[in-house]
Amino acid sequence: MSKTNESLMQRRNAAVPRGVGQIHPIFADKAENATVTDVEGREFIDFAGGIAVLNTGHLHPKIIAAVQAQLGKLTHTCFQVLAYEPYVELAEKVAARVPGDFAKKTLLVTTGSEAVENAVKIARAATGRAGVIAFTGGYHGRTMMTLSLTGKVVPYSAGMGLMPGGVYRAQYPCELHGVSVDDSIASIERVFKNDAEPRDIAAIIIEPVQGEGGFYVAPKEFMQRLRALCDQHGILLIADEVQTGAGRTGTFFAMEQMGVAADLTTFAKSIAGGFPVAGVCGKAEYMDAIAPGGLGGTYAGSPIACAAALAVMEVFEEEKLLDRCKAVGERLVTGLKAIQAKHKSIGDVRALGAMIAVELFENGDLHKPNAALTGQIVAKAREKGLILLSCGTYGNVLRILVPLTAPDAQLDQGLAIIAECFDEMA
């Protein structure tokens, strides 16, 4: 009996806890570049990229070749027991790309949440302080500490009780929703006045472009003022570049466009083209604050994932993917703005590089987020063969994270499907 999406969904529901969500009731069988084929043989254009993991596309030949070569050497020793060169080489190459004119060191781990957890550990050890300031709408992971930092309770921490303390929430600047740079800075000052002295704050953590929160771009002026505030009070600035990193925004790290450097930078997702590696890169003096044994993990910096990540960096150079990122972003934004001109429900189209969002409202009223229409567009697009994602505090944002290697014809096909969906829902 041939497998179907429906039969596999039944098995999934019986075997996997319901807390593991699934956006699309589809089981993928194989994929190549920006095309995914399900178990029933149907092809889909992938505008999700495994949630920003596949900037270099599915099964990029160079990355697969690097992984296959590494498989013939060794797959695991635990770096803390027996080291291997790919870890060191990747640490060097990441440090060379992370913004900041200072000596850097790089810790490799396995997931984005783990990277953020370790960034907080490092900040606490380096400063001798415990508090952290995070932002409304921020997403930093699903582990206990990262859930404290994440600015959205449902669904991430609903029903789990209070998360670890010592985290304070400031407002993320967002002109569209009436939060100015001044407002955001004032909200940090309120934390200092009402909740915790600056000398008790180890770090301020921020996404240069919010991911799950809705793809809002932090204004350059805000990042510069935030950097100055951190310097004034001896607070470390952590840039969470898990979703923005590895070329998604048109520079390898989004902070390159912000005019300032963070003290610590977290990265994961697209850094290894689908293989699990993540990390923290920062000022050497801060990274060295924790004694031997305080950092690491059994699978941290897997040699296979390191080999993949080194290949990703070569692909970016050889295929000029940062230039391609800008071209992809411009092509999609132009097409989406043409759709916006016909539909009042689209209140905003925004992007940094190829990190693109379309925010939907009822009749264009910015006070009425339209989550229902967003969900309907995602479902209708799937019926037409396009995989989309939604995000945002109110679930009213369509986000596009298509592989940068997708050909123009496929980008145009995806745009045509999105246009059809809006026309049919109008």
Automatic annotation (TrEMBL):
<dbReference type="InterPro" id="IPR015422">
    <property type="entry name" value="PyrdxlP-dep_Trfase_small"/>
</dbReference>
<dbReference type="InterPro" id="IPR015421">
    <property type="entry name" value="PyrdxlP-dep_Trfase_major"/>
</dbReference>
<keyword id="KW-0663">Pyridoxal phosphate</keyword>
<dbReference type="InterPro" id="IPR004632">
    <property type="entry name" value="4NH2But_aminotransferase_bac"/>
</dbReference>
<dbReference type="GO" id="GO:0030170">
    <property type="term" value="F:pyridoxal phosphate binding"/>
</dbReference>
<dbReference type="GO" id="GO:0042802">
    <property type="term" value="F:identical protein binding"/>
</dbReference>
<dbReference type="GO" id="GO:0047589">
    <property type="term" value="F:5-aminovalerate transaminase activity"/>
</dbReference>
<dbReference type="InterPro" id="IPR005814">
    <property type="entry name" value="Aminotrans_3"/>
</dbReference>
<dbReference type="InterPro" id="IPR049704">
    <property type="entry name" value="Aminotrans_3_PPA_site"/>
</dbReference>
<protein>
    <recommendedName>
        <fullName>5-aminovalerate aminotransferase DavT</fullName>
        <ecNumber>2.6.1.48</ecNumber>
    </recommendedName>
</protein>
<keyword id="KW-0032">Aminotransferase</keyword>
<dbReference type="Pfam" id="PF00202">
    <property type="entry name" value="Aminotran_3"/>
</dbReference>
<dbReference type="GO" id="GO:0034386">
    <property type="term" value="F:4-aminobutyrate:2-oxoglutarate transaminase activity"/>
</dbReference>
<dbReference type="InterPro" id="IPR015424">
    <property type="entry name" value="PyrdxlP-dep_Trfase"/>
</dbReference>
<keyword id="KW-0808">Transferase</keyword>
<comment type="similarity">
    <text>Belongs to the class-III pyridoxal-phosphate-dependent aminotransferase family.</text>
</comment>
<comment type="function">
    <text>Catalyzes the conversion of 5-aminovalerate to 5-oxopentanoate.</text>
</comment>
<dbReference type="GO" id="GO:0019477">
    <property type="term" value="P:L-lysine catabolic process"/>
</dbReference>
<dbReference type="InterPro" id="IPR050103">
    <property type="entry name" value="Class-III_PLP-dep_AT"/>
</dbReference>
<dbReference type="GO" id="GO:0009448">
    <property type="term" value="P:gamma-aminobutyric acid metabolic process"/>
</dbReference>
